[in-house]
UniProtKB/TrEMBL annotation:
Protein name: Dihydrolipoyl dehydrogenase
InterPro entries, per database record: Class-I_Pyr_Nuc-Dis_Oxidored (IPR050151), FAD/NAD-bd_sf (IPR036188), FAD/NAD-binding_dom (IPR023753), FAD/NAD-linked_Rdtase_dimer_sf (IPR016156), Lipoamide_DH (IPR006258), Pyr_nuc-diS_OxRdtase (IPR001100), Pyr_nucl-diS_OxRdtase_dimer (IPR004099)
Disulfide bonds listed in the record: 49-54
Family: Belongs to the class-I pyridine nucleotide-disulfide oxidoreductase family.
Keywords linked to the UniProt accession: Cytoplasm, FAD, Flavoprotein, NAD, Nucleotide-binding, Oxidoreductase, Redox-active center
Record Gene3D superfamilies: 3.30.390.30, FAD/NAD(P)-binding domain
Protein's GO biological process: 2-oxoglutarate metabolic process
Active-site residues, record numbering mapped to chain: 454
Binding site for NAD(+): 190-197, 213, 281
């Protein structure tokens, strides 16, 4: 017998569970379907982000950063340690407990907001009068009907052609988070967010890490000046980053992995490693969704086709997050989830792609919002730039972390903030001020005139805004 709902959300990741909660808050009888399971077979909502992405990677980054501080920096504070060791199994266990806390937290939020949760794989059955039939394949098969369906099925790691993930030697983000002991040599293909973060974790714990990147420039999506500063810092730390490479063949014969590649000059090289992380992007996940049953349109990449408001080609069917166009970011998915729930309720949900922040949680952290200097040059837009180094910031000196800078880009005539780029300590937190400012169309002068606490890292933001007008006070 079919169970009827106003809204059914397929997928319990950041876009899906947030959409379900907001829909329930708006008075809709809402269900959420998610198939992730823990090692005991129980439900583990939260999607890639919670289970094998954002949350566990930050847990490992924090643990490895503590270890590196103890090994290399505690002495500067007068703290001495003997026989320093890392228990990788315990570190991974802590990561797993952090993941479980988030899984359980989402289940609690469903209960609190009266969202009905179904553990299994959701798929389209057929169109019915007034809505759609959705099948749930789990321990107990269920059939649901809903007037509105929100697809939030996320994305999967992209594998190299002919080189599938075995999660033992050839690792996706999932396998990279489950390494049980520090490898002597670790290879990473792709110098993006995942590659840099996972490479940093295992480099801190003693691995010899080499990152191979196909693009000729480092972090091409970031501001060029910021990317160069980050590259310099990572290289100094011991990450080996090769740009402009072409991978020719990968062999897993024997105990390790052998990568044959051509370097930027065309010379043939071979890299032998114990494990290889492949982080070359992600692909939309519609596996098992059965879109053809209702005529749901996909594009050539396999993404669900939506308009600017996340409507699909079918009435009452919406899609959000990694499975549609736009940046594959958890917070973008969340905002779309909220906006769609509000649009179903007849409200005017809003997502501004121009003010979505980007963050890489390495050390130094990298964060930015808005346009890069190279993009402004390419567009022919007149702008002013201002930078301020953390080296001149009192709080950064006290922390012992003075790498990097804050950079402001503002319109040459109006002084409107066009982009803010940060490489340095706590960039992930500092960027929020810039997001708020840009959302309200603030000028660099506005930030320069606002009182910032002293001593604080945020003073570097104020000083960079002052630098746009060439009037920094502390540099």
């Amino acid at each position: 017998m079919s169970k009827n709902f106003d809204v059914v959300v397929i997928g319990g990741g950041p876009g899906g569970y947030i959409a379900a909660i907001r829909a329930a808050q708006l008075g809709f009888n809402t269900a959420c379907i998610d198939e992730w399971q823990n090692d005991k077979g129980g439900p583990a909502p939260g999607g890639t982000c919670t289970n094998v992405g954002c949350i566990p990677s930050k847990a490992l980054l924090q643990s490895s950063e503590h270890f590196e501080h103890a090994a290399k920096h505690f002495g500067d504070h007068g703290i001495s340690l003997e026989n320093l060791q890392i228990d990788v199994a315990k570190m991974v266990g802590r990561k797993d407990s952090v993941v479980k806390q988030n899984n359980d937290g989402i289940l609690y939020l469903f209960k609190k907001n009266k969202v009905t949760f179904f553990h299994g794989r959701g798929s389209f059955g057929k169109a019915v009068e007034g809505g759609y039939e959705i099948s749930v394949a789990g321990k107990t098969a269920e059939t649901l009907t809903a007037k509105n369906v929100i697809v939030a099925t996320g994305s999967n790691a992209r594998a190299l052609p002919g080189v599938p993930f075995d999660e033992q030697k050839i690792l996706s983000n999932d396998g990279a988070l489950r390494i049980g002991a520090t490898p002597k040599k670790l290879g990473v293909i792709g110098a993006g967010v995942i590659g840099l973060e996972m490479g940093s974790v295992w480099r801190r714990l003693g691995a010899d890490v080499t990152i191979l990147e196909g693009l000729p420039v480092f972090l091409g999506a970031a501001d060029e000046q910021i990317a160069k500063e980050a590259h310099k810092a990572f290289t100094k730390q011991g990450l080996k980053i090769e740009l402009g490479v072409k991978v020719n063949a990968i062999s897993t014969e024997g105990e390790g992995v052998s990568i044959a590649y051509a370097d930027a000059k065309g010379a043939e090289r071979t890299l032998a490693v114990d494990k290889l992380i492949v982080s070359i992007g992600r692909v939309p996940n519609t596996i098992g969704l059965n879109p053809e049953a209702v005529g749901l349109q996909l594009d050539e990449r396999g993404a669900i086709v939506v308009d600017a408001e996340c409507r699909t080609n079918l009435p009452g069917v919406w899609a959000v997050g990694d499975v549609v166009r736009g940046p594959m970011l958890a917070h973008k998915a969340e905002e779309e989830g909220v906006a769609v729930a509000e649009r179903i309720a007849g409200q005017h949900g809003h997502v501004n792609f121009d003010t979505i922040p980007w963050v890489i949680y390495t050390s130094p952290e990298i964060a930015w919002v808005g346009q890069t200097e190279q993009a402004l040059k390419a567009a022919g837009r007149a702008y002013k730039a201002g930078t301020f180094p953390f080296l001149a910031n009192g709080r950064a000196r006290a922390l012992g972390d003075t790498t990097g800078m804050v950079k402001f880009l503002a319109d040459a005539q109006t002084d409107e903030i066009l982009g803010v780029h940060i490489v340095g300590p706590m960039a992930s937190e500092l960027i929020s001020e810039a997001v708020v400012a840009m959302e309200f169309k603030a000028s660099a002068e506005d930030i320069a005139r606002i009182c910032h606490a002293h001593p604080s890292l945020s003073e570097a933001t104020k000083e960079a805004a002052l630098a746009v007008d060439k009037r920094t006070l502390n540099f």
